[in-house]
Amino acid sequence: MFSTKNIALICSLTVFCIVHCKAQTPSLSQLFYPNISLRAEYMPEVTAENGTKFGFNRTTALGIIPLSTEISTGFGFGKKLDIEARHSLLIANVSQISPTIDGLEKPEGGYKTFGATFLQLKASLREKFWVYGVGGGVTQSNETFFNPQPYFYGGAARLRILGLRTQILYGTAIIYNQKFRIIPIFGFTKALGNDWKVSGILPFRASVTYKANPWLHLDLNSIYDGYSAGFQEYTTSEKMIRRQNYQQVRFTLSANAHVLNVLNLGIEGGIGTFRQVKTFNSANETLSNVSLPTAPYVGVSVRYITSKSKLSSKFMKGTGIEF
Hints:
Elements: H1 4-11, E1 35-47, E2 53-75, E3 81-101, E4 104-105, E5 111-124, E6 128-141, E7 149-161, E8 166-176, E9 180-192, E10 196-202, E11 205-213, E12 216-234, E13 239-259, E14 263-281, E15 286-292, E16 295-305, H2 310-319
Antiparallel strand pairs: 1-2, 1-16, 2-3, 3-4, 3-5, 5-6, 6-7, 7-8, 8-9, 9-10, 10-11, 11-12, 12-13, 13-14, 14-15, 14-16
């Protein structure tokens, strides 16, 4: 399910890298190799001050499909020789989220999200390194197919490589999710010695990574996420369209193990805080706004990398983004 954070994270890389493999160490290398990730998240019900109980679980399947990698030469402005490399890929996702309110799944069956993103990384001697992304999808209540919540997004960002250990990214994302938003994006990756790294996509995520050994990474994460979806509420005389928004900030510790060169297994645990759930009617009027107390969070994931492209590997090493 994609809210402001999920959509902006995808469009700000996917426009630096996803969303989406949240318990796994984010890495630009994921964008160059075909892979699929499966993830499950759970937060138990907790009781708000007004007596409302709220909890949710979410499962996600996300696939990354490289489409093409091209390297070409030509003459740019001033008749100067330019070498350009492009890498294009498609990212597709399906999510199921099941919120519970006062012990009942509401709406019945929860929600589903279907989405896709086209992403292109472009590097050249003259234009340096840019990332472009566009995509969209729909969030739909499982109890009816007549109140879908569409979302669309696009963005462009400049990636600056300040050495083999430092990269920054800055750009702008344009998002429609019930209303249009323009969000500035700033991303960074900085290696601290051989075993430590800090990275993030602000204002959505920041992580500190410790490389315990070549196959095990530990991450301390802060993440802003949630979901937004529509449903129908029934009375004895009518059906009323409702919209539910949920947001939170998570502070978690995750461990990621690389197994057999093709599998990445991840587990993440921590807390969700600054939590809020809102309900709106069809006129966008707020019906309820409930602040929720801190709750425990746990997530597990597995990513399968199908193969590695030699040309894509050369593209990564040649542009210095071997994260």
